[in-house]
From TrEMBL:
It comes from the Eukaryota. One of its GO terms (biological process) is UDP-N-acetylglucosamine biosynthetic process. It comes from Hypsizygus marmoreus (White beech mushroom). Residues 11-165 form the N-acetyltransferase domain. This is N-acetyltransferase domain-containing protein. GO terms for molecular function: acyltransferase activity, transferring groups other than amino-acyl groups. CDD domains: NAT_SF.
Amino acid sequence: MVDSVETPAHEIIIARTEQEIQQCYDVRIAVFHVEQKFPLETEIDEFDRSPHATHFLLRLIPSLTPIGCIRVVKRPDASYYKLTRLVVLRDYRRFRFGRALVQTLHDWAKADALSAGATGSIQVVLHSQLHAKGFYAKFGYLPEGAEFDEDGDPHQKMVLRLPLEPSVNVQT
Ligand SMILES: CC(C)(COP(=O)(O)OP(=O)(O)OC[C@H]1O[C@@H](n2cnc3c(N)ncnc32)[C@H](O)[C@@H]1OP(=O)(O)O)[C@@H](O)C(=O)NCCC(=O)NCCS
């Protein structure tokens, strides 16, 4: 257990090596399979070894102990970015690490879209477990459509439109 109220020193990196990507899988399995009881067979999916997935790893410094991750998928035939596989290990929740991971994904998606010549805004889509809807709502994600079953558990599609240019604050 973390016995301090101070946020542990940490970093978020893009997982590039096999070891770093495996560490993402390990924290996902610890949370989605061991804690939440989702099937192990579906945890590693077709996007994991595709070139269309980017994995971000949250780890403590200086120990480099993995404590969370998030994955973004951008298929070449899709106009949207998909936020997937967000986890923070149970002992490290409520330190705003989930928020930092989502923000990192948003920043990466915006930079990726801008480098591909996009203008205006991008859409980020996710399938939220019902308990996490309030978490995603804090970023402005809105529910779209009815709840549906995914891997045996109810989920809600949520969508966010992210402007590519900083919003202008007009002082009156
Ligand atoms: C969802 C999860 C990633 C949140 O991570 P976290 O590090 O605990 O969240 P944060 O500390 O960054 O919280 C950011 C804000 O969201 C709020 N929040 C956190 N979890 C929430 C929840 N389940 N519902 C509503 N609000 C939530 C926090 O209070 C905080 O609010 P504030 O910024 O106004 O103070 C984490 O609970 C987790 O890993 N859960 C298990 C895996 C999971 O369910 N992933 C989502 C799959 S869809």
